[in-house]
Amino acid sequence: MLYALCLGLFMPLIGFVTLLSTARYVGRRQAGFIGCTTIFISLICFVSLLISYVYTGASPQTYTLFDWIHFNSINANFALHLDPLALLMTLIITGVGLLIHVYSVGYMDHDDDFARFFACMNFFIFSMLLLVLAAELLLLFVGWEGVGLASYLLIGFWYQKPEAAEAATKAFVINRIGDLGLLLGLLLTFYLFHTTDIVIVSNSVETGFTIGAPVITLLTMLYFVGATGKSAQIPLQTWLPDAMAGPTPVSALIHAATMVTAGVYLVVRMHAVFTMAPMTLQVIGIIGAITSLYASLSALGQTDLKRVLAYSTVSQLGLMFLACGAGAFYAAMFHLTTHAFIKAVLFLSAGNVVHMMHGTTEMSKMGGLSAIFTKTHWLFLIAALSLSGIPPLAAFFSKDLILENEYLVGYEFLYYIALAASILTGIYLTRAYCLTFTGPQHLDSDQHDVKEAPSIMITPVLILTFFSIFGGFIGFSIGRTPWLEDFIAEVDVTYIEKELTTDFIWSYEGILAIVGAIGGVLATALVYSKFRDQLGKPIEFLKKSFYFDEIYNWLFIIPLKSISSWMAQKIEPEIFDGSINILAQGTQGVARALQLVQSGQVRAYVAWMALGAVLLIVYLVY
Amino acid sequence: MLPHATTAQWILGLILVLSSLGVILVRKPVHASLSFLLTLLTLAALYLQLSAEFIAVIQILVYAGAILVIFMFVIVLFQDAHQKIEEEQPKSSKILLSIAGIAFALALAFLAKQLIGLVSISEELPADFGTVQAIGKSLYIDFFFPFEAIVMVFLVAIVGALYIGKKNDGTLMGDM
Amino acid sequence: MDVSLFVFVSLAMFGIGIIGVLINRNALIFFLSIELLLNAGNLLFVAFAREWENQTGLIWVFFVLIIAAAEAAVGIAIFINQFRTKQVVDVDQYDVLRG
């Protein structure tokens, strides 16, 4: 088991190093081959681990690779923890990752910097695997930072584009703000538990503290701040839409399927601590709900295809956090899984369109592309319907689970917000589909060679679409506990006792959700097919996503910039340089004063000697 | 508390101080050098009082006989130039000089006050104290190396003086 | 023997010598005052040699005498050199080594 684990974890790292060192010598095919093979081997390792885990009935286990930090009272080992939760995440990461890597071979074929791209992607996979497999919070933090770095490298992959570089910096800085919270949380963990081993912390938090203890609330709030930064929740959500300046596979992998889910993973992983702080869970739920609604509304006003999907991601992450807030950690993980598949499909099929249209993402330039993209538009449609919550597609089950848990726990208000967000999901996704694929064509004259994407780009999407259709059934079954829940239940991620899932679908709230979803989709399709020409421009307020960026600019960036320029122009020359100048001038002044002694006058010299002799006499006599 | 000394020593001391004052205070340099001569002779007498016969004689021979003569020659040579001093302004700061002078005088007075109660040994004196034989013996046997060194110093001084004093037209002693 | 008188006289002569150096602007009187200083030192040596009946003091006086002679010779040479340049005997004018 250990060998498979290590091989699976470090294979992408080897790929990263290899590609980076041979970047100049490998050709396009070899780089792509190396990049995909490493992930493939990783996937095989984790699948084999899964098989052996399930069929030999193993239990969660920690493998210490080597002693890492021993410093005063801070001890951390490089230890990996294998349990169902981690295994689920690794399968998602490597599975979806592999498919996206294969897709990228086709997507980046116009690019010269092939090897660097795959190197960064491999590095990202490695960091993410490290994050989910870490047994110590400190090691998790290493992976956390690693994915942040990979995100920066990949968003700014086309570094010649100024908006890409700015978006990468923005993502990194906002992530950093969240990381500060996580770091403080780590320090607090050290202080409270004298270790950051997750298992130990989870076990000792119940015995050592009472429910609702302020220090635990503080700890969980700090963790949540970190999760907010990474998973783009309010107020740290502004980086995700701008991050769409990177290549589409990057958006698919990092900003849909894996990195942004690291925040959810953190909360779920530390669920033992979070359940001891009900207030934090309430805050998480509220923020999740608000973010979800806010992002859905913003997505409604976007004209850029990828930005619609970005806001959709923010919204779905909000739903996951909402589930966590209700204590339904299993529901969050389930939705994470289905969302990974579906969002990957959405992004990759959008990528097909963008790639074949030579880089445009504005939906105003698209329209009626279903005639050209015969296969892609079906995949997009299926995924859109799935995410909207149409039964029996995948996301229906996970979303419904969330809504049900929300309602059962008693957060009815949040339930209605989540319901509104879900209905809006259907609306904006259908809108995106209609604007892109139906209606009259708006192709420019220089884009007459647009055709369907090559099979290397379609096949991965096809596989993922398969999962987005049937993936829900791993988490749903009639009459007995679903397979996924059984699998993860070992790590005890279910908080509340509940009845069998089947009952919910036929309750009032369940039917409301289904009807709302179907109704929203149909209504939007109707509007865009009949009244498309009468629809004006999108509402500016929504397009600018409630002017969050502008507010932040006014609140933080402009004051900081003015302070910086003031410091650079006023303080630095006058105070810092000035003090050094004073030092130099003082020395010169003293020298000039002392120069007067050297008058060349013998009598004056004798006078000074006489004075010295006076001092000597006084000293000697006393 | 007056020092315990014979009348002759008192008188000689008084003359010494007065003639020293004369050296520095008289107007004409020739008078100053004559006053210096008196100082040297008085000094030799004082040395005799202190049973240092050899030193007294050497003092008269070397100081009064050689050094003073040099000074006399030079002073007489530059007699006229002495008047020109009054034409120029002094360049050293008078304040500094006066402060230094007064402070030094006070310090010396202070030092003298501390030395009033000096302890002295008994009056037994070796018979050959200060004689030529004794000093010669001491010089050539105990202090032979410094003696030779002094000779070297003297040699260097002679050569140096000759070199510094030569005229810049290439010859060593001018037209001589 | 009580040599206090000689010590006082020596100190007085030393002080007079220093004041002479500070007062006079004529280079030659300047030199004479320096000789006064040396003689004051000599007197002190002889006095204490007599008090402690140590002949080393007298030897030392001998050496000082020789050095004084050498110094007078060199000093006069320097003075003559400067006079050739400046044509004055004013010590204040000999300030070439000014900082």
Characterise this structure.
The complex is a heterotrimer of chains A (622), B (176) and C (99). With 622 residues, chain A is mainly alpha-helical. Chain A contains 25 helices and two strands. A two-stranded antiparallel ribbon of chain A has the order 1-2. In chain A, strand 1 and strand 2 form a beta hairpin. Chain A is globular, with a radius of gyration of 30 Å. Chain B folds into two domains: 95 residues, Up-down Bundle (Four Helix Bundle (Hemerythrin (Met), subunit A)), CATH 1.20.120.1200; 34 residues. In chain B, 68% of the residues lie in helices and 0% in strands. Chain B has six helices and no strands. Chain B starts with 6 loop residues before the first helix and ends in an 11-residue tail after the last helix. The mean pLDDT of chain B is 85. The mean pLDDT of chain C is 89. Chain C is an all-alpha fold and 99 residues long. The longest helix of chain C is centred in the C-terminal third of the chain and has 31 residues. The chains are: A mainly alpha (622), B mainly alpha (176), C mainly alpha (99). At the B-C interface, helix 1, helix 2, helix 3, helix 4 and helix 5 of B face helix 1, helix 2 and helix 3 of C.
Please provide the count of β strands of chain B: 0
The DSSP helix count of chain C reads 3
Sequence of secondary-structure elements of chain B:
HHHHHH
Number of domains of chain C: 1
Largest interface, C-beta within 8 A: B-C, 83 and 73 residues
Average pLDDT confidence of chain B is 85
What structural class results from the helix and strand content of chain C? mainly alpha
Which percent range fits the helix content of chain C?
Answer: over 70%
Q: What is the CATH architecture annotation of chain C? A: Orthogonal Bundle
- Relative strand content of chain C: under 5%
Amino-to-carboxy terminus distance of chain B:
60 Å
CATH architecture of the largest domain in chain B: Up-down Bundle
Corresponding CATH superfamily of the largest domain in chain B: NADH-ubiquinone/plastoquinone oxidoreductase chain 6, subunit NuoJ
Terminal residue distance of chain C: 50 Å
Low-confidence spans of chain C? none
Compute the number of helices of chain B.
6
